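Lecture 7 notes: from sequence to structure.

We start with a single chain of 392 residues. Read the sequence below before looking at the structure.
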Amino acid sequence: MTNLYLNKGKDESLRRFHPWVFSGAVHHIDGNPKEGDLVQVHASDGSFIAIGHWQIGSIAVRVLTFENEPINREFWVRKLRAAYDVRKTIGVADNEHNSTYRLVHGEGDSLPGLVIDMYGQTAVMQAHSVGMHVCRMEIAEALKDVMGDQLQNIYYKSETTLPYKADLGQENGFILGQTPEDIATENGLRFHIDWLKGQKTGFFVDQRDNRSLVEQYSKGRNVLNMFCYTGGFSVYAMRGGARLVHSVDSSQKAVDLVNANVELNFPGDKRHAAFAEDAFKFLDQMTESYDLVILDPPAFAKHRDAVRHAIKGYTKLNARAMEKIPAGSLLFTFSCSQAISKEQFRMAVFTAATLAHRQVRILHQLHQPADHPVNIYHPEGEYLKGLVLYVE
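Now the structure, written as tokens:
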């Protein structure tokens, strides 16, 4: 294993168990590791600190362990079992009413660069680092050891998440089993999961708790679900007793998927309609009066250079919605941009309320669910922000 040495004083964050080594902290490396190789990280005085995956870029090492231990099948089994135990503790795994949850959430489960979502008996695995890609078969075998017969299929979906400069030629596909079954259950509702071509791993698992809150507030309301994708919020709103539910997405494929999911749960129900339309255009031209609106756009800022533009986008979107909805409406508004802080998002919404000349109360401050845990030493993992607003 290659040894890496830090500049003097650059070990402080690692001593506090932050799982990243930035390239500027590296003094020198003994040898010439390939991207994805394991490296031992040492302080400037030569003392051992951690073991992690070497990578090219601003983050030079993603730390797997702060113990001097082998990274082998036993290591992966132990880490995955710990993650599985957390999901059983919070009640999302081994639950007859729920077969959809995140099993591994990167740094939140001390496995930086790895995401695993469960959909029934199928795990969708996603690598965000070359190191996790290199270890994918070992991880798959360890996952089977941990889950036994509850796991029948593993679909590896990292074509768009791996660093493009690594030039790995990765293609998505099954690395264990194979199944045409694409339906999973979330809180008793059924959804088609498009892990083959859909966004993320095929479904936005991180909004489960917030979808339940929409259900709680939907009775008798006219609901508008913007950026609907698979229609999770729409289906929950219908179960909650909404008077009508309209779903909007710029993608016709998403509109087809939300229609399929509504039909799966509420066959023949005429309360729902879906529209393939740009969000801002729809808000400008809408004639229906909606008193519960959900704004869950894709990440406006995927890196810090885009933050200023993203804040303007959130402000414009929320202002447009607030201008249109009647008094007494509820607005569920979200940001999934990791580069946007809770304070920045809240300020964007505050500015939107001012521009729209509306009195607004904050009823709830929302975040990602417990199966997307935040490592206490890695606050950057808290990426999902949301507010439920009462608009007068």
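The chain has ten helices and 20 strands. Keep this in mind for problem set 3.
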